[in-house]
């Protein structure tokens, strides 16, 4: 299960790499925060692939994911473990969080849907999740798994993440607007602030690290 390398290993980007194998799933994930939007995402969960590609398209992250899991039961374990791996890779890529903007926010419309995301690379895992999803499923994807995905990301990356739906009727639109807003907010927060001169963006002078990085 080799990952074809369309991420240049010599790129001086901030990267995270996770290989996570359990009895339930096997996940390989590489993330480059300083990417150009190269994505190769194969989780065997089509709607999750579609959402992860929003991070690539709108965050301009490079992201490679290969996941296989016990989807014969349901998508829960694979969805969660991809979220855990993404969170760990994000924590690694951020390291001690020197020089970044730290805060990010975005308000993304998608037709009638409007979703707001505000986040802080604080080192303090916290999720406020307020999407009012109506349907049980989007395609075959269980809509309860959206929250589970973000719980996993937050707990493994030390993000403080607020997700709020301002408008929307169609669940596909609402969730996609959420991932677009998350992508742009994360891009804003993780980009290097040239005025920060490599300092840790905290009045304490230190931010907790997450993801084993
Ligand atoms: Mn779509």
Brief digest:
The chain is α+β, with helices and mostly antiparallel strands. The chain has helices spanning 46-59, 76-94, 144-157, 171-190; strands at 15-21, 25-32, 39-42, 62-69, 103-110, 113-120, 126-130, 137-138, 141-142, 160-167.
Summarize the helices and strands and which ones pair or pack.
Blueprint: E1 15-21, E2 25-32, E3 39-42, H1 46-59, E4 62-69, H2 76-94, E5 103-110, E6 113-120, E7 126-130, E8 137-138, E9 141-142, H3 144-157, E10 160-167, H4 171-190
Parallel strand pairs: 3-4, 7-10
Antiparallel strand pairs: 1-2, 2-4, 5-6, 6-10, 8-9
Structure description:
The chain has a 4-stranded mixed β-sheet, with helices on one face. It has a 4-stranded mixed β-sheet with strand order 5-6-10-7. The chain has a two-stranded antiparallel ribbon with strand order 8-9. The protein has 4 helices and 10 strands; from the N terminus they run E-E-E-H-E-H-E-E-E-E-E-H-E-H. The protein has one domain: Ribosomal Protein S5, domain 2 (2-Layer Sandwich), CATH 3.30.230.40. The N terminus is likely disordered. With 213 residues, the protein is an alpha+beta fold. The site of manganese (II) ion has 3 residues, from helix 4. Manganese (II) ion binds next to helix 4.
Q: What is the chain-wise order of helices and strands?
A: EEEHEHEEEEEHEH
Give the helix level as a range of percent.
25-40%
- Second CATH tier, the architecture: 2-Layer Sandwich
Text of the CATH class: Alpha Beta
Give me the secondary-structure category: alpha+beta
Give the overall shape, derived from the CA principal axes: globular
Ligands: manganese (II) ion
Low-confidence regions:
1-10
| Rg estimate, integer Å | 16 Å
**Separation, N- and C-terminal Cα atoms:** 24 Å
Mean pLDDT: 93
- Strand content is 25-35%
Number of discrete domains:
1
Region (Disordered): 193-213
GO cellular component, one term: cytoplasm
Catalytic activity: D-erythro-1-(imidazol-4-yl)glycerol 3-phosphate = 3-(imidazol-4-yl)-2-oxopropyl phosphate + H2O
Organism: Candidatus Synechococcus spongiarum LMB bulk15M
């Amino acid at each position: 299960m080799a990952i074809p390398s369309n991420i240049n290993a010599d790129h001086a980007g901030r990267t995270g790499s996770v290989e996570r194998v359990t009895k339930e799933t096997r996940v390989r994930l590489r993330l480059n925060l300083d990417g150009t939007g190269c994505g190769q995402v194969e989780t065997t969960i089509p709607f999750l692939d579609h959402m992860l590609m929003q991070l690539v398209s709108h965050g301009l992250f490079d992201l490679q994911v290969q996941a296989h899991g016990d989807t014969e039961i349901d998508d829960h374990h694979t969805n969660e473990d991809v979220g855990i791996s993404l969170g760990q890779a994000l924590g690694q890529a951020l390291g001690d969080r020197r020089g970044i903007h730290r805060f990010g926010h975005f308000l993304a419309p998608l037709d009638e849907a409007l979703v707001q995301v505000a986040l802080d690379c604080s080192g303090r895992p916290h999720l406020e999740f307020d999407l009012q999803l109506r349907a049980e499923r989007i395609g075959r994807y269980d809509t309860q798994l959206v929250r589970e995905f973000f719980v996993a990301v937050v707990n493994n990356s030390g993000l403080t993440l607020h997700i709020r739906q301002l408008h929307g009727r169609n669940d596909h639109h609402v969730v996609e607007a959420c991932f677009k807003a998350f992508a742009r907010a994360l891009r804003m927060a993780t980009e290097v602030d040239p005025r920060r001169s490599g300092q840790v963006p905290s009045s304490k002078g230190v931010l907790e690290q997450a993801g084993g990085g």
